[in-house]
Known about the structure:
The longest helix is centred in the first third of the chain and has 59 residues, at 65-123. α4 packs across α6 (286-294), α5 (248-264) crosses α6 (286-294) and α6 (286-294) packs antiparallel against α7. Strands 1, 2, 3, 4, 5, 8, 11 and 12 form an 8-stranded mixed sheet that branches. Strands 6-7 form a two-stranded antiparallel sheet. It is of the alpha+beta class. The chain folds into 2 domains: 1-63, no CATH class; 125-400, LCP protein (Aminopeptidase). The protein contains 10 helices and 14 strands.
Amino acid sequence: MRKKELDIIGGTDNGGKHTYQFYEDWDSRPAGRGTGNREKSRRTAGNARGGAGQRNGGQNSDAEPGSARRGNRAQETGGQKGRRQKGRRKKKSLLKKLFVTAAVLLLALGAGLYLLTGLAYGKMNYSEIPAFSGKPLQEDGVIHILLIGNDSRENGEDGRSDAMILLSVSRKTKSIYMTSLLRDMYVDIPGHEGNRLNAAYSFGGPELLMKTVEKNLDIPVHRYIQVNFEAFAGLVDAVDGVDLELSTEEIEYVNGYLVEYNMLTNRPQGTDNMDPSLSGMVHLNGPQALAYCRNRYLGTDFGRTQRQRKVLSEVIRKLPKALLLNGTELADSLLPNLTTNLTKGECFRLGLKAAKFLTYDLVSDNIPQKGTYSDATIRGMAVLEVDFEENRKYLREKIYGEEAAR
């Protein structure tokens, strides 16, 4: 509070009048006499200022609620901020726990898959091909694996390549292509004169066959899986058979091929024979499906390879469920009759991607394409003379998604 001092001077010595000090909030009254009174007056004024300050402080507390509210809001804001920070810390802690849990589960699943891969791989027959050991599994976004079905009754490379299917898993087109390679195509075989495609297998096994495919079709295929009769039949049985539509004539040929199979596997003749009157949608077990796939008298070799892809497509469709419900039987029936140059690490990587691959489109095809070949006789052999340039363009377009040059 500002002090205002006014001296009314009449002269303390001459007129006996006094000097008064006034404060703007005081009543005008005498404060005392002489020097002592002036000191007392100053003390009184000081006390008055202190009292006024106290009063004003009390008045500010009561009469200025805005300041109090602002203080309360500041306290409330601080509390809310603290709660928000605490909430964020809890959220971060929860996310961290979830992340750690997910990481542990993924590691456990990965370890489990690696263990299962190791157990399964131990049942297969690994056959290294040094010429391809340094080649990558995937090139230019595509994994190529040559599936070879030979007519051997034992493991090994004896016999002929009864079926050759190029399995191409394309990340570019999100598709899995099963391309049958007709065995009667007349091809250039490295280190040999021209011959049918399946002669390459007879001359040099899977290695020479893959080199022949690459030379003629410009496809970098460096991995193979070879199965024999027993493996194919066991695979179909492991998925509980396949349902396909067969004509009466096709069923009759199934029974005819079962004669040889029953003899080779020491089963009584007539085992698994089918009733031709049951044509239409029928259920085939392993030996029946194998006999169905071997028939080349209906529709020539094009019809035979189409039947092979039909069975294989059904097997692939049913395989995930079979692995869950019947994995042990599947492994025991198939893997010992399978030979490959895929390494254990490559099989593990394929296993990790299996769920993703199941979302891809499954496409069935064959080479040569219609209109790109003609029947011919060369050195006494009935063969297919193929326009390989057109078929190479076709494969690049379908598998790699490349536009054919116009």
